[in-house]
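Progress against Task 2.4 (sequence-to-structure conversion) is shown through the following example record, which the project officer requested during the mid-term review.
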Amino acid sequence: QVQLVESGGGLVQAGGSLRLSCAASGLAFSNYAMGWFRQAPGKEREFVSVVSNHGRVTYYTDSVKGRFTISRDNAKNTVYLQMNSLKPEDTAVYSCAASGTTYSSRSIQDYGYWGQGTQVTVSS
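Structure tokens generated for the chain above:
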């Protein structure tokens, strides 16, 4: 059974940093692009970042460019999201997801597997 389990969320002050992890099992990890999405209260889920199956291609939503970095360790079946210079508007539940497409999609419909999410709260 495919499982994606996020960790690393928590409460941090504005300007601080967090590193999220997503551990995958039950799938051929290196065959999947891995994405991060977030959902704030009262808002729709939005794309944050994606990394291609071997880490060669990355994309970020404009609001996090220069602050967040996505990476992966295929030997550990884990994808990371390093979040620096955090802002209160980054507060959301962050979920990782796996896409079986052959490109690094930013479209939510291309992701077939999802984790449960981890809460990130940034205080001002």
